[in-house]
Amino acid sequence: MSQIIPLLNYEEGYREKPYIDTEGYPTVACGIKIGPKGAALSNYSFSVPREVGDVWLESFVNKTIGNMNSNPSIVAALKACNEARRDILISMAYQMGVNGLAGFKNTLAMVAAGNFSGAANGMLSSAWAKQTPNRAKRHAEVMRTGEMKVYAGLLK
């Protein structure tokens, strides 16, 4: 069973009230941008309960998956994945966009070939891993093992 919604809630964090993200955008729930960079938080006087945010997130995930399915190298990688590895690729696409994930050409080719250790190493040697090292380490471990053990007790 997919763990993508709890995985993204853990990795992105969840806040019911709007906040300014690390890039300066007003954001809410599970990292969902709600306005232009630099906009004042006073423009946003609402909250998003977790149940609502999860439905909203599921909609974004479905759109992301649809976009992933239009990229042949991503499709080939997804076909080689079990559910846990698939969730990792979806998480990466959610975080950096489908085009960002598509830039992992060698990593995706290794996934498609079933070389999951090589793919994990590729993930860890990327600029993405330097920007979000803890997330990248967790994601690489799931890619390597095909199991979500590194997230045991963390996903709700």
From TrEMBL:
EC numbers, comma separated: 3.2.1.17
Gene Ontology molecular function, alphabetical: lysozyme activity
Pfam families tied to this protein: Phage_lysozyme
GO BP annotations, alphabetical order: cell wall macromolecule catabolic process; defense response to bacterium; killing of cells of another organism; peptidoglycan catabolic process
Keyword Hydrolase carried by entry: yes
Reactions this protein catalyses: Hydrolysis of (1->4)-beta-linkages between N-acetylmuramic acid and N-acetyl-D-glucosamine residues in a peptidoglycan and between N-acetyl-D-glucosamine residues in chitodextrins
Domain of life: Bacteria
Coiled-coil region: none
Keyword set, alphabetical order: Antimicrobial, Bacteriolytic enzyme, Glycosidase, Hydrolase
Record-stated family: Belongs to the glycosyl hydrolase 24 family.
Annotated protein name in UniProt: Lysozyme
Source organism of the structure: Salmonella enterica
